[in-house]
Write a structure and sequence with these properties.
5 helices; elongated; alpha+beta; four-stranded mixed beta sheet
């Protein structure tokens, strides 16, 4: 499974640049392999991203903005959804991956299972 992060390398928005760096920095720091898909330099990437963000995750006006995160073809979410998952120690679940043993997420999951 390949995590794909759709980004715009030539975005004029500092907010978008910051969000892209945040997502990719977190994935790199946690040794989660991912592929950068640039929508600014590659029309196919832009078209694919826009067509595959689900209707209920699109902005009310305009096109979805990067970063958008996918696990292969499965939509995971945008920056806000990623940020919430990170705050909840649930990034691996958000990405559709199994949390590695010893990670905060794996420990939180084990605690929840014990409480049931």
């Amino acid at each position: 499974m390949v995590i794909k992060v759709y980004i715009a390398t030539s975005s004029g928005s500092t907010s978008i640049k910051k969000q892209q760096q945040d997502v990719m920095g977190f994935l790199s720091a946690n040794k989660i392999e991912f592929e950068e898909c640039d929508i600014a330099a590659n029309e196919e990437n832009r078209k694919w991203m826009r067509e595959n963000v689900p209707e209920d995750s699109r902005p009310s006006q305009g096109n979805p903005l990067p970063p958008q995160i996918f696990n292969e073809e499965r939509y995971c979410g945008n920056y806000e959804a990623f940020f919430c998952a990170r705050e909840d120690n649930a990034v691996y679940a958000f990405l559709g991956l199994t949390a590695p043993p010893g990670s905060k997420e794996a420990e939180a999951l084990a605690k929840r299972q014990e409480q049931q």
